[in-house]
Amino acid sequence: MRFDSIIIGGGLSGLISGIALARGGSKVALISAGGSALHFFSGSLELWHEGAMAMVPFCEKHPSHPYAKIDTARVERYTTIVKDIFARVGITLQGSSEQNHLRLTPLGALKPAWLTMEGYATFSLGGECDYHSVAVVGIEGYLDFYPEFIAESLSNRGLECGVYNVRLTTLGGLRESSTEMRAVQLSRALSGKTIEELARQIAEKIEDEEVVLLPAIFGLGDKDATKRIEAVVGRRVLVAPTVSASVAGVRVQKALMDEFQRLGGTVLNNDSATGCRIEEGKVVAIRTANLEDEELVAENYILATGSFFGRGLVATAEGVYEPVVGVDVVAPASREEWYSKDLLDAQPFERFGVATDNKFHPLLDGKPIENLYAIGALLAGADAVKEGCGGGIAVMSALRVVEEIEKRG
User: Fold this and answer.
1) Phi, psi of 69, rounded to the nearest 5 degrees
2) Cβ neighbours for 274, distance < 8 A, ≥ 6 positions apart
3) Exposed site from 32, 181, 241, 305, fewest CB < 10 Å?
4) Residue 72 has what pLDDT?
5) What is the pLDDT of residues 167-201, one digit of tens each?
């Protein structure tokens, strides 16, 4: 099978690059093993922990960082493109490239964010919001949301908070099957009579709070669930992220995958790249687990396989390697240099990744492969945890590589 571009990896960076290329008229294939880190999506994308302006002096001092290769002058334009891609699949992102805002974590802390899905509770960079009282509502049996922690945190910031729990009798078999309901299963059940019961109980229990804050578990069963609840309770309804698997992440991945296919993209689902053929400094074909006897051929190839979580990088007793092409990896040979014994320190392994040139061509024995690109968490040089840049690097590097491919024609 022949394509203009083949993308290996179905996470955020792979989907964004696939959609952008397909919108430009390219024939694109995406190889996806299934789930990705998107399933733990908080509802927010992070760009940089100190805001976009702070990226400029940092990149000047750290030329090997992915953002230094993207060029921060592109950030505003790429932000517009990302918002447009999400808007086309029915998801509104609030925020801008000019300044971070703050979003709630599952335990109630406030964390800097770049873009956040509409309907999530957010605050200004100074911690202000446009309401003064909140009813934090949990669902009995659902253990991945902590109303008391969130209420305590918001109370410490000057908001009046009430904590309430509701019991949904209409969940039926879901409740009987497990004492621990999970977000995705619960979301699919939250429609029809269950939403009506939830809204009615909230209206009966809460007092005079201005805003109702619920766990972010809506959207898979009834996309208009929060609006239906608002109509009954007569208050504004916002949501906060939950622990473990994310309904927002499952929803985003499905929406972006559907958009990629709507644009004519080919998805090789539940498959994985097992190797490639390189001739004269170029990748000429990719092999996959499900197509053992057939090679996939393209003009361009994009590695969007993620870091260790997505098995884009593999660590063994002998070292760290990239398993599909075998390109150069930035990681010290000594295992003692991989980590800090202090759990709260920056961990060196977070910066491990594929070595690339300034156009994101991976290096093989120190030389760039001209029709191969690496994007997202696979790239060396960034610490997404300490720098708050995981989502930003995923989408920014994806769009930067799309520009390079389209420039080549």
Assistant:
1) -85, -20
2) 287, 288, 289, 324
3) 181
4) 86
5) 988 775 555 455 557 788 888 888 889 999 999 99
pTM of the model: 0.93
Q: Is the Cβ–Cβ distance between 378 and 353 less than 8 Å? A: yes
Whole-number pLDDT of residue 127? 92
CA nearest neighbour of 4 among 13, 17, 16: 17
Predicted pLDDT of residue 143:
85
Cα–Cα distance, 114 to 97 (Å, whole number): 7
> Which H or E run includes 323?
none
- Domains detected in the chain: 2-94+249-408 (3.50.50.60), 121-240 (3.40.50)
* Three-state DSSP state, 13: helix
pLDDT of 172 reads 59
